[in-house]
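I have been asked to look over a protein record a colleague put together. The record follows directly below this note.
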Amino acid sequence: MAGERKYVSAEELKQHNKPDDLWISIQGKVYNVTDWAKVHPGGDIPLLNLGGQDVTDAFIAYHPGTAWKYLDKFFTGYHLKDFKVSEVSKDYRKLANDFSKLGLFEKKGHGVLYSFSVIGFLLMACVYGIVCVESFWVHFLCAALLGFLWIQSSYLGHDSGHYQMMSSPGFNKLAQILIGNCITGISIAWWKWTHNAHHLACNSLDYDPDLQHIPVFAVSSKFFNSMKSIFYGRMLKFDSVARFLVSYQHWTYYPVMCGARINLFVQTLLLLFSGRNVPDRTMNILGICVFWTWYPLLVSCLPNWGERVMFVVVSLAVTSIQHIQFTLNHFSADVYVGAPAGNDWFEKQTGGTIDISCSTWMDWFHGGLQFQLEHHLFPRLPRCHLRSISPVVKELCKKHNLPYRSLSFWEANVRTIRTLRTAALQARDLTSPVPKNLVWEAANIHG
């Protein structure tokens, strides 16, 4: 009969989850995104990770209403048989629709202008202090200011990566390169590659790159079985070196955070000069070249090698505040093994995130990421609205008996160290990746 709908089952849809055969379902309609994945603005990783399943909630989270009209050209003609929407998803989609009607996704406030002004002022103050003042303590202060500048630039770059904060896509891309590559030395291409994967596979041990820090850190004993990283495509080997380092990770956590920015510099270079398909590779490389021109040049203006070393160490160490915040939001939250599932989007985000409670006047310090759950649920929402929607998200979690964790900065640090210490004690057992009993753990309480 003409016009009769054709259906595929969820099991049949699951078979189309490969790079050369990639289907997804959105609101029960099945789309072939095999070719689109190669040019998808968010990269191929999100589509590959969610391939072969319904991805409606993730699509709503990441795309504006104008994106729906582009789906028709990918429609296979099939609908998903027995398509059902959970009560949680119904409420989540209604909430997203309400926010859209209120125009919250478009109302960006004046935060971007303020942030650019602060960054510009800090950069000028830092350059003036180094070039025009001879005092050691002024140089020390300038190093701290530069580290703080990098933190605020990263927050602004994070905003620009999630939504268009400038007047046009072209200006938004230019801002990304300027505040990301040129000022912080971290490629926006690298950030998009890893960050989109993190959001979609929040706290999946084998899919989320933000939890894959072997051999230095392991947030779960599941890493002790030398798990394969789906994101990096290699084994995360838990060898003797990893065992030793992880055994003391609750002691090395803060020192490592002080130098964590170096790892981001390295990761940026590894991606930009890799064989991967990197969007705007040339522009990203040029931006990185700008950073590695002005930063060493500024350091060379200091009068002696002692001050130069001090300046580099202090500027990098100050950024540890931001790296600590990133880990507080996720290290001690719930983890799981396996690919993200499109039918429990809301549940996975609530389980894998922790908010940091703070006063309103401290919002600038955390860059909006203290509302981690709200940000994960609505990544396109400008940070100026995250505090206002927090009570609504909290009520929705309560309604569906899902966790809503909001800890003080101190409490989050304690919980993170406790998580690292638990895994460290387990790693010290050379006969088994898991402590044999409570007596063994008590005997090692000195750690």
Summary: The two ends are 72 Å apart (CA to CA). The longest strand covers residues 21-26. Strands lie at 6-8, 17-18, 21-26, 29-32, 75-80, 228-229, 234-235, 355-357, 406-408.
